[in-house]
C-alpha cells in the first residue's frame, strides 16, 4: 500500500520504482533517445547545500533521495524566511484553494452553461470561505458527453505546485483536502471518470485521457517536481477510492510518462527553457582584419516570443495520430 501524505517522499517513490522517479525528473525538451536531461533547480534556494544544488544543476535522484530525501517540501512547510525569499526573488505567491475553486467554477460554468455543477461556494461574513459539494452525479448539457469533458484541454500557467489542477492540499495552509472535496481541474475530470466507468480497464483508459488533456508549466524545478508528484499521487488516490487497491506499477509508469510531457519547465514569457537565451559573439572578417560583435537574442531585445535564440519548450499533442506529434509550445500561440 502506497502512503499518500501531503508531503510526498521521494524515497517512497524510489522504493516503489527507481524508473518511476527517474521519469518524473525528466526534461522532455532537452532529453534525447541517447541521453536523458533532467529538469534543473532554477532557484538558489538550495545553493547552500553545495555541489549538485546550484541554480543551473540538474535535479538528480541522488540529490533528493537517501539522506537527502526531505530536501524538497511544499511551500506551506517551508520556513517563513524561505517563503519570503522566494516571493522576493521569483514573485512566488500561492493561491488558496477557495480562490482556485472560484476560478475553476467559472470555467465549468461556461462549459456546462449553468452554475453549481460540482459545488456551491460559501463566503462567510467573517471572511472565511468554503464550498458545499454537489454529491449528485454530474449531468451533462445537450450535445455534450462526459467524454467530451474529460478530453477538454486545460492549462495552468506558472503552475507552482499545480493547485488549479489537483487539490490534494491547500498550498497556502498545507491542510489536506479529502478526495470528495477536491476542486482541481483534473480532480473534476477524475470524478467524472469514476461516475461513468465500472471496470478497472475502463477507468484506466478514461483516466489516461484526462491526464493527456491537462497541462502546466513552471520555472522553478522544485515546484515542478512537487506538481508532478501531486499529479501522480492523485492518480493513485482516485484509483484507490474507486477500486479499494493501488494501481499496478505499469499503470503508474504510463501516467508518469504523460505527466513528464504535460507538466514542463519553461519561462512562460519567452516559451523557452529558463535562461537558455544568450548573447552570441560573431567574428566579422574583412580586408582590415577581424572584428568581434555581440549579437543579442532578438526575441529578448524586441520582446517577441517567436524570435528567441533559446531552446523552445516541447510538448506532446496526444490527440495526434498514434500520439506521436511533438510540437513547440509557442506553436499553440499561432
**Cα distance, first to last residue?**
46 Å
Overall shape: it is globular
Strand order of the largest sheet: 3-4-5
Number of helices: 11
Arithmetic mean pLDDT: 92
- The overall strand count is 9
- Residue stretches low in confidence (pLDDT < 50, at least 5 long) are none
Helix content: 25-40%
Radius of gyration: 21 Å
The largest sheet is: 3 strands, parallel
β-strand percent reads 5-15%
Q: What structural class results from the helix and strand content?
A: alpha/beta
List the helices and strands in order. Answer: HHHHHEEHEHHEHHEEEHEE
Number of domains: 2
Explain this structure to me?
The chain is α/β, with parallel strands linked by helices. It has two domains: 10-90, no CATH class; 97-271, no CATH class. It has helices at 10-16, 18-24, 61-64, 80-90, 97-112, 146-151, 185-196, 200-212, 221-243, 249-262, 298-302; strands at 119-123, 129-133, 154-156, 214-218, 263-265, 280-286, 289-295, 314-317, 325-328. A three-stranded parallel β-sheet has the order 3-4-5. A two-stranded antiparallel sheet has the order 1-2. It has a two-stranded antiparallel ribbon with strand order 6-7. Helix 7 (185-196) runs antiparallel to helix 8 (200-212) and helix 7 (185-196) runs parallel beside helix 9 (221-243). The longest helix is centred in the C-terminal third of the chain and has 23 residues, at 221-243. 36% of the residues are buried. The mean pLDDT is 92.
